[in-house]
Fold each of these.
Amino acid sequence: MKRAVIVHGGAWKIPKELQKPSRKGVKESARLAMKCLMNNGSALDAVELAVRYLEDNPHFDAGTGSVLNAEGEVELDAAIMEGKTLNAGAIAAVRNIKNPISLARSVMENSNYVLLVGRGANKFATHQGYEIFTSLKVRRETERWKRLHKEYKETMKFSEIGGTVGAVAIDATGNIAAATSTGGVPFKPPGRVGDSCLIGSGLYADNEVGGVSATGDGESIMKIALSKVVCEYLGKGLNAEKAAQESVKLLENRIDGRGGVIVIDKGGDIGLSYNTPKMACAYMKEGMDKPESQV
Ligand code: ASP
C-alpha cells in the first residue's frame, strides 16, 4: 500500500497574520508524519507525531496556544483511533497536559476505557507518568480572553474562531489511523466538551472504508456525527474527495453547520472539504518530495 498522510489546523476565517505560520505548521507536521511512515512507522505513530507537533506549535488551538474558557483556563479535548481493531482512546476537559493526543493514546493502550474526562483524566495522566504543566496559556489567548471577559461575550460567530488540529494516515500495511486535538472554543463554560474527542464526530478510522478528522462548529458536528457520515459515504463507494464534499453539504443543509473534514480512503486516496472561509491543511503521499498545502 502507498503511504499517505493529511493534516489540518482548523477550518475557520484564518486572519492574515496567522495564515503563513498556519501553512508552515501544517506542512511541517505532514512532513514529519510522512518521514515516520517511510521509516516503517505505523499510521498510529504518524498521526500522533503529526498532532503532537501541532499541539506544541502555539499558532494552533491545541496544547500550547489553546483558547481559554470562561474562567480563563485551558481545557483540552483529544482522541485517537486506529482502523484495524477500531480501538480508540480519548480525553476531555483535561488541564495542563502538554500533549493531550499522547494521553488519549495511553487511554487506548493502557486502560479498559475509551474516554476519560476532567479530574479523572488528569489523575490517569499522573499515574501514567505525564508531567502536569503549570500553564499552556499564550499571550494572544490571554488578551482575547480579557476582551471577551470585558464584553462578557459567551458566543462568538464560529467563523471567527478555530485552529483545532487533526491528522489521518495510512501506512505500508494498509492500516489507517486518525487523531484530533483541540482547546475547543473561546470562553466556553468549564466542562464544555466538543466534537473533537468524540469517536464518530471529530474523528473515525476503519480500515474497511477509511479515516477522517473533522474540525469546525462542534455543537453541529456532534449532531450529525460528521466523521462517521464520511465513512458511511465511503462505504457506499464514494471516493475520498466526494465523501468529504457530501458530508460537509449534509452538515450545512441539515443543520446549517460550519466545518471541514480531511479524509483518506482505504485505497490511500486523499480528500478534503470545508464550508468555512479557509482551512489550514497539508498532505503528502509516497513519491512526493514535499507536502502540498493550502490555507
Ligand atoms: N470542533 C472544535 C470544538 O468545537 C473547534 C474547532 O474545530 O475549531 O471544540
Note: The CA atoms of residues 37 and 280 lie 22 Å apart.
Amino acid sequence: MVVLRLKKQRYMAALLSSTTILLLLYLQNSLLIFTYGSFGFVSVLRSPCACSICVADRENSNWFSERYNPNVPILLTSTNSLLNANVSSWWEGLQYSPDSGNYTEVVNQLFPLFPDKEHYSDASPDRCRTCAVVGNSGNILGSHYGPLIDLHDFVLRINKGLTEGYEKDVGSKTTHRIVYPESAMDLDSSTHLMLLPFKVLDIQWLISAFTTKNITHTYMEVPSTIKANKDKVMIVHPEFIKYVYDNWAEGHARYPSTGFLTLIIALHICDEVNVFGFGATSDKIWNHYFEEILTSYENGMHDGKFENETINRLQQENKILIHKGWA
Ligand code: C5P
C-alpha cells in the first residue's frame, strides 16, 4: 500500500515538473512584451516577428513610436481610395499638372485593370521578412554587396537603378521597383512595379501605359508604355506619401525623395531592413553608380540633409542597418 502511494507521488511530481519545464520553454520562446492597452489593462504579447530585432516592435524606441503609424494605408485599393480633404489638397498641390483628370474618376478605372488586393498583412511572430533597400548612390561601386543584397526576401530598387553590368556591387534580384512616370523603366515579369503617384496624371499615365499608350508627356517626355507584369502593379497611397512627409520628413522641403519614401515603405512591409546605396557626396550631390549626374539635394524639392539625419537616427534606434559602401 505504502509502496503504491510512494509511486503515485513520484509520478505526480514527475508530471508536475515536466509540465513546468514545458511551460518555461514556451515562455522563453515567446519574447514577452507587456503593453498597456487603451483600457489600462496589462496584456502579454509575443514579439511581432522572428528576427532578432523587429522593425514593428514599438516598445524599444519612443522616437520611433512617435513617428511610426502601423495603420496608415500603404497601397491604394478600391476600398481605401477616398482621400480626406487634408490629404487631397496637399497631394494635388505637389506637382504642376496641366491636363489632370478628376481623381475619383481616374481611380475608378484602376482596379478593373490592376490587382485590387491586400498585401503585406502576413507579419507573424514566426516569420522574419528581410528587405534590402537599394538606393542609387555612387558609394555602392566597388562594395561587392551584390550577393548580400540578393539574399534578402525583398529587394527594393528605386527609379533607374540598373543591375545589368553592376551585379557584383548591387546584386541582380529585384522584387519591387519604385518609380514615377518620369523615372520608369522596363521590368521583368517577376518584379512588382510600385508607382509613386505625385499627381493625378501619374495614375492616368499608369493606366495609359497598359492600355491606350497615348500619354507621352507630363512636365517632360515620359515613355508611352513600359514592359512590366500588369498583375504585379501596385500604387502607393497618396495618404502614405503625406504621412512620410509629416511624420518622417517633418515637413521639410516640398516632399520626400523617392529613396526616403521607399525606405519608409520598407519599414512597413519588412521585419528587418538593410539599406544600401544611400549617401550623397561631400558636396551634397546625389551621384549615381550607373551614370554621371549632378543633382544637388538642396534643390528645394527634397531635403537630403534632413532625410540623411533621419536615416542615421533610424540606425541609432536599431530599426535599420546602413551599409555605407566605399566611395
Ligand atoms: O537619384 P534617385 O532619386 O534616382 O536615387 C534614388 C534614391 O537614392 C534617392 O531618392 C535618394 O534617397 C537615394 N540616393 C542617395 N544618395 C545618392 C543618390 C541617391 O541617398 N548619392
Note: The longest strand covers residues 130-134.
